[in-house]
Amino acid sequence: MSDPTNPFTTPYVPPRVWSPATPSGGAFASINRPIAGKTHEQELPVGKHPLQLYSLGTPNGQKVTIMLEELLAAGHAGAEYDAWLIRINEGAQFGSGFVEINPNSKIPALVDRSGPTPVRVFESGSILVYLAEKFGGAFLPQDIPARTETFNWLMWQMGSAPFLGGGFGHFYAYAPEKLEYPINRYAMETKRQLDVLDRLLAERRFVAGDDYTIADMAIWPWYGGLVLGELYDAAEFLGVHQYQQVRRWADEVRARPAVARGRKVNRVRGKPEEQVLERHDASDLD
Question: Is the N or C terminus of the chain more exposed, i.e. has fewer CB atoms within 10 Å?
Answer without folding.
Answer: N
